[in-house]
Write a structure and sequence with these properties.
four-stranded parallel beta sheet, 3 helices, 20% strand, alpha/beta
Length: 71
Amino acid sequence: MHIGVPAEVMAGETRVAVTPETAKKLKAQGHTVRLQSGAGLAASAPDAAYEAVGAEITDAAGAYACDVVLK
């Protein structure tokens, strides 16, 4: 299953729907995780942390084009 994680758009929102640790667990279960570039920055989770666990960094359209979108 393809799981998309777009960046939050609400002013002042610092959370991200999936942490790098959760992305790692989802990958281990066989899922593809696509994260919008910069989605985790406000939560102190840079793109490199997601890439290190196998998540794909994409744009907003790529994150929303998945089977499941987590917000």
